[in-house]
Design a protein that fits this description.
single chain; mainly beta; five-stranded antiparallel β-sheet; 1 helix; about 35% strand; globular
Amino acid sequence: MGSVGEGLGKVEVRLKWDPSPLGEAARHLDIVAATYSADDPYGRPVYVVHYDSRSPDGTINMTRHSQTGQGFGYVEVMVLEPDRLAPLYGRVVVGVVIHQDGGRRTFGDIHNAGVLVVQRYTELLADDFSGVADSIATTVAEFVRDSSGEWEMHGMIRGSDSDPVPFTMEMGGEPFTRHDRSPEDRPSGTV
C-alpha cells in the first residue's frame, strides 16, 4: 500500500493471533513503535514504545495488551496521534515482534495472525504476515511528515530475524532484512 492521505490524526494499530494449543508455551506477540528525529529519520530511535511503556508526550500508547492471544478479534491495540507529535520528530515506525520464550517461533507458526491499521472507520492497512512467514519480527508501517508538515502513512511489511530488543533498535533503519531485497541485491555478510 502506498501513502495514505493528508492530516492523519488518531490511528490505531490492532493485532490478533490464536492462542497456543493446550500444553504449549504461550504465543506472545507485541506491537512496538520507534520514534525518530526529523534530523536523523533513519538513525537510532529517540524512544521506543511497547507494552509496558508509552511515549513521553502521550502521543503513542498501548491501550490493549495480550500475552496469550486469548480474546475475541484484535487483542492488542496501540494508538498513535502523529498530528500531536512535536516538530522535532519526523518519523515513526511500527512493528510486531514474537517473543521467543518457548523456542523459536516465526509468523508461519502463529495461526490466524493479522494486523490492521485504521483511522476512525477507514482501513489504512491489513496484513496476515504470510509474506514474512519465516521471520520472528516485522515492521508494519511508517508514519512520516511530508514537505507541508502533514503526516502520511506508508505500509512497510519487512521481516526480520532479530530478537525483540535488537529489532527495536534497527527496525527504522534503511533496509535491514533478508526479506527486503532479492539475494543478488543483498550486501555481503547478510542473510
